[in-house]
Fold each of these.
Amino acid sequence: MRGAMSSIASHPFLAALARCRLFFDGSTGTMLQARGLCPGELPELWNLSRPEEIVALHQSYLAVGANVLTTNTFGANRLHYGTEAGGPSLEEVVTAGVRLARRAIEASGRPRDETFVALDIGPSGKMMAPLGDLAFEAAVELFAEVARIGAAAGADVVLVETMNDAYETKAALLAAKEATALPVIVSNTYDEGQALLSGTPPEAMVAMLEGLHADVISANCGLGPDRLLPVARRLLAAAHVPVLVSPNAGLPQLRDGRPTYPTSPAQFAEQMGQIADLGASLLGGCCGTTPDHIRELVQRVGQRGFVPADRRAAAHDAAAPAPAIITSYARAVPIGLPSSPPVLIGERINPTGRKAFQAALRAGDLSEALAEAASQKADGAQVLDVNMGVPGADEPALLLRAVTELQAITDLPLQIDTSDPAALALALRAYNGKPLVNSVNGKQASLDAVLPLVARYGGALVCLTLDESGIPASPCDRLAIALRIRDAAAEHGIPASELVFDPLAMSAGADPDAPQATLEALSLIRAHGLKTSLGVSNVSFGLPRRPLLNATFLTLAIRAGLDAAILNPHSLPLREALHAASALLRLDPGFAAYVAFAAAHPAPAAAAPPATRPAAASNASAGDVPAAPAAQPPLYAAIVSGLKPQATAEAKAALASRPPLEVINQLIIPALDQVGRDYEQRRAFIPQLMMAAEAAQAAFAVIQSALASSDATPRPRKYPIVLATVRGDIHDIGKNIVRTILENYDYEVIDLGRDVAPEAIVEAARTHHAPLVGLSALMTTTLPAMKETIALLHRELPHVKTCVGGAVLTAEYAAELHADHYAPDAMDSVRYAESLLP
Ligand code: B1M
């Protein structure tokens, strides 16, 4: 977070960065391979077994002008070291790594305040929960241990690098900050789509990392300097801290089974020059770069003009007032962009006044909250407010669960809405990204509780203009509270650009002057260069035709300069007002959003009669008119949205009116195809793919048990069929469907699971005397494994027939692989099995 500058600003490394450009070294892995590191050998072991090689490598980089050395500790963590009796401890490996780099510097005679040792921390190699099995706090401890050891051994700075998952990056940065007093550089690996594997764009990374006080933000690995240039440009446009760029020497090409890197030292340095001119303060190299690359880089770029990061950032901020950026793992949402419509914050994940929702939350049931996330997004919400304030419930635990589970199924940023500091602390720590915090107010107790938490974890902050004396009637008094909050935040290092002020809508029924006062306070706050938000629906409390009043008040607030509106996105009048006012006030260039909205919501006369919405939206705020329902069948929608409990319930409902195979073929598979298309077109990312897969599996489990119970009498089995997803491929939903249908037709299925080696498949066919083997593969990259399996089967067991299936296959491909049969779906495999031995 800008302004919340680190207390270690006087550290020699940061002081050097304010003076001049620094050069990192190049690759470690590629260079060690050239010195004899064998495939599969752990590179960090060389710190103990071949220390002279490591020192020599460091010296080769120092000799060409590098002034930051990366320790040989990339993969050193508790998962790889210190687990085997007799093996070296993690402490030995990391300490040696730091000392060898220090030894090289000392031998070079370079001054201590010009040449630095960066403790290298790479990714854990595991997937973070809830999608994987590495819990957030376990990841923090894993990285903290390495950071503690490295700092004690004398590292100057921590380099967290090659991270391709935003959440793991957060764990590593928090760990390094909490375990050491060193500056921390955080480096991510972006793909050609300019996002991390977790789908995170550069702006979202910058917002989260600056909020957590990263001292340098960086991109490394993955691409060469030419293809990393657009990412560097985006990082430099967004970041206020210095930026490091360490690309590969181009995209690797396989030669004789080994990767080679095509970008020559001269090309590398030439392309890096462009990145330096954009303002990168630190430059280095990753895979495939050698001392020759760094020599060229230092020689060609060392003399170019250098602008310190704070001057570069100040120039950006002067060009346009800085918005408050909030993020999820997949997107950054700016609040307060000039000439933009207000950001729509969905208010529906809030049990206030909703008895059934409260009872469900008290029982630990979050399904309505998850369904609201999906339906509010469908109705245009850009941010989701999450409030778990239920009397009698454990709010910290519930809010933590809600934040975690919501982030697994939605890519929208969340607004964490609680008045309980303990709940806020837990949710902020576990949040994947940089949230909006709702809220602080002018009471000293609130300022004391909330500001330190936001300063520590990052976040934009909604500030309510009330204090110990209540909500002032006068707009000027509300402004005075806003300014007091602004000043208190600044003392905690939270800049005004991160604050969004809510001048509080009050019921016009209770006080006819209230709406005017709120609008005037809003204008005053705006006139002081501050941002605003408003929960609009309070204005109509106790009055008839609430949607009409709410929509009109929203229009007036937009006119007064509203930056964010907290409202019910299911309310059509509110969304109509938002789009129409934004268009008329020139906040919607070219009327683009208005036209898209109008196309999706034709005028009432032409529209179909309103239908009732699904349960999730049926208890919309009093008087709100629900928007048109989504057209997708509920089971399809539940799978696409990754909602497991809903998928289970909707599968049961679907089975009441359709046969099981129809549910599979017309609802489950098309939903997965939709998610696959979204993934391909970068509208969805791995987390959504995984949640959709889990929802599909939950639906399929219902179908499986329906099939099993409809056919309780055991019948003799026909013959054994071996089934497997081939080596390297973990997609097994299709194979599982095929197994169930084959079993339903009385075949004995030996299911070997997924990612199965050719030899294991042949062995199972031999042992079970199976006349038929069914193979599944869903990726072009795993077709060779399928071909290898078929060849091995034909060679070892020529009498065994092979039947293949999976999304990437066609009859032509199957013929090329020499399969005996291609089955486009499960029923076709049954027909083929019957044709062999009826
Ligand atoms: Co991934 N995935 N996925 N994925 N995934 C695809 C396959 C992909 C097409 C998405 C896309 O880009 N559009 C793409 C492959 C691109 C390509 O190679 N051309 C892809 C990718 C790239 C990946 C990863 C590499 C992503 C990453 O990590 N960067 C990764 C791969 C990991 C690995 O395998 N090493 C990955 C991971 C995953 C999840 C884990 C998240 C999850 C799988 C969970 C699981 O299976 N347990 C997943 C999912 C869900 C999909 C999609 C969306 C859906 C697959 C599916 O289940 N379809 C998929 C997109 C798509 O296919 N539209 C995609 C429904 C299923 C019922 O159909 O398997 O075809 P299918 O089975 C049918 C028939 O084909 C036939 O009968 C079945 C029933 O009718 N059949 C057989 C299948 N096997 C048969 C065997 C037989 C007979 C018939 O023998 C007798």
Amino acid sequence: MRYLGWKTEITRLALLVGAAALLGSAMGLGPWLVVIATSGYALWSLYHLHQLNHWLLHGQEQEPPEATGLWGQVLDLIFQIQREDREVKARLQAMVDYLRSSFASMSDATVMLDPAGNIEWCNRAAGTLLGLRQSDDSGRLLVNLLRSPEFIRYFDAEKYDEPLEMVSPVNQQIRLLVSITFFGRRSRLLFARDVTRTHRLEQMRRDFVANVSHELRTPLTVIGGYLDTFAGQVAENPRWQRAIEQMQQQSRRMQNLVSDLMALSRLESLPSPRERERIALRPLMEMIREEALIAADGERDFQLECDDSLAVLGHEGELRSAFSNLAVNAAKYTRPGDSIWMRWYADRDHAYFEVSDSGQGIEPQHIPRLTERFYRVDPSRSSATGGTGLGLAIVKHVLLRHQAELRVHSEPGKGSTFTCVFPLAATERLAS
Ligand code: ADP
């Protein structure tokens, strides 16, 4: 099919030249008729070329000019390619229109950015939430329009695994959750969602927990105080003695719970401390070891290893509470005769505060959930150990406030290792 036009054309030319040669020799005109025939053929081809040129320049929407043979085929093929091209374009345009209209009608702000960070397109919600207008701001650098330092830091760092929560530049009352993804050749798509309601609910929850814990503290202290007084006076009646002992135990548990809840509320609501103290670890670790040994219901082989030339920078009270939670846990979840190791050391990238034990260990499925509030591997055993289920949540929050993270490694029956990993920027080498 493809070469049919070509063959027809060759045959047509051969017949024309052959007939002109025969006629020319019969009429005694020599090659003149051949010359006239080939010139006529060349003029005819030129005419078709002109028609093709004219059609390509002016009339692509119309049918191609009529032609036969090779010219007809070439024109038909061009027309067919153009038609297919138009169909593909129309399909793509329809898809782009569809995507744009769905983005445009979204309640989340959507902004498309080119690889240099200039705005290519944004929807209507970008106007209400971010103050951006497609007509005015298209082609402008986004960071010149959203000037909040936290946003600029987030945008430039290009670490978009976690979204950023920030105040809307249009209205200080609106809280936004901003997420960015790369697409194509490092173009970026930014979404901003109004999370004011969720933020307010979260704030209310925090305030509620903080207020309830605060209100419960005084009555519990009073009850605990009276129970201690009674305990000294009813020694001769064993029935009362047992009841009072249990009441004392439960009231102590509630007091621990309230103080842990208050500690968590404080960690959640207060901004990270700006002033960082330089804290030497050895005295802190020795104090924590004493606390943990008191919490343990028997003997433990408690080893301590400390890089004395390295101090940690942070809030001493918070770090002591986090480290002490880990050490007391190690004491609680081991038996007499087990070993506990507490270490402070650094390598080229990080500094580590680590508490390992040779205790009962933790099944792998529990490990990702350990830092959730009130999560316990074995609730019955944990209440016997006097735990609140809040200890590791406190550790996680304290570490977050120190740009550090908690890593847990554990094997059931062999023991556990809880490691607080600090960036070296949160430490300081001490002159020896
Ligand atoms: P709790 O007050 O119950 O100890 P935590 O938040 O401190 O609460 O710990 C959560 C759970 O993690 C504990 O209930 C316990 O099951 C488990 N856990 C923590 N530390 C250890 C450890 N060193 N060995 C074994 N299990 C542990």
